[in-house]
Design a protein that fits this description.
The chain is of the alpha+beta class and 183 residues long. It has four helices and six strands; from the N terminus they run H-H-H-H-E-E-E-E-E-E. Strand 4 and strand 5 form a beta hairpin.
C-alpha cells in the first residue's frame, strides 16, 4: 500500500512499519536534531582540520629551529679554528726570521689546527673511511682513476685522493680513490 500523504507532502514523515526503527523514530520526531548533529560534525571536522594545520606548521617550525640550533652549535665550535687559521696566515707573512724557522712554525700551527678539527669531528661522531690497501667498495669509495699494477690485487685501493667520512653509520662523503687493475 502506498502512502499518498507522503507523496503529496514530502515534509510529512513516513510511518511504514518496515522502515520504523527506534533511530528513525527519533529522527522523525525531531528534524532539528539532524541539523544540530550535522552542524556539530561539521564543526568537529573544521576544528580537526585547523588542529592538523597548526600541528603541521608547528612541526615545520620546530624542524627549522632544530636545524638552526645544530648549525649554530657546529659553527660556534668552528670559529676558534677560523681564528687559528687567520693567525697561521698572519704568521706566514714575510719577516726577518729565517725561512726554515718560519716554515717550521707555520707547519706546527697548521698541525695544531688539523688536530683541533680532527677532535671536533671525533666529538661529532664523524669517522674517516679506511681506504689504503682495502678492496674497492662502491658504497664508500668513489673511483676517480685506475692504474695497472702487478704488485696490487685487482680492485685494490692504491691511493686516497680525498678522504671520505661517516657520520655514525651513515655515509657523509665517499672517499675519492685510485684503484689497481690487472692488465
Amino acid at each position: 500500500m502506498t502512502d499518498f500523504a507522503h507523496d503529496a507532502d514530502p515534509q510529512t514523515p513516513r510511518t511504514d512499519p518496515e522502515t520504523t526503527t527506534p533511530q528513525n523514530m527519533a529522527l522523525q520526531e525531531d528534524p532539528d536534531q539532524i541539523l544540530r548533529e550535522r552542524d556539530d560534525y561539521r564543526d568537529r571536522l573544521l576544528r580537526s582540520i585547523a588542529e592538523f594545520d597548526n600541528y603541521r606548521k608547528r612541526i615545520e617550525r620546530e624542524r627549522r629551529e632544530l636545524a638552526e640550533f645544530v648549525s649554530f652549535d657546529i659553527l660556534h665550535e668552528l670559529l676558534p679554528l677560523v681564528d687559528d687559521l687567520e693567525r697561521a696566515l698572519a704568521a706566514a707573512a714575510p719577516s726577518s726570521e729565517s725561512t726554515a724557522q718560519t716554515v717550521a712554525t707555520y707547519r706546527t700551527g697548521v698541525e695544531l689546527i688539523h688536530k683541533q678539527l680532527a677532535e671536533l669531528l671525533r666529538k661529532r661522531n664523524v669517522t674517516p673511511i679506511e681506504t689504503k690497501g682495502v678492496d674497492f667498495d662502491p658504497h664508500v669509495h668513489q673511483a676517480v682513476a685506475t692504474e695497472a699494477s702487478a704488485t696490487h690485487r685487482d680492485n685494490e685501493v692504491i691511493e686516497e685522493l680525498r678522504r671520505g667520512y661517516r657520520l655514525g653509520e651513515r655515509l657523509l662523503r665517499p672517499a675519492m680513490v685510485k684503484v689497481a687493475s690487472r692488465g
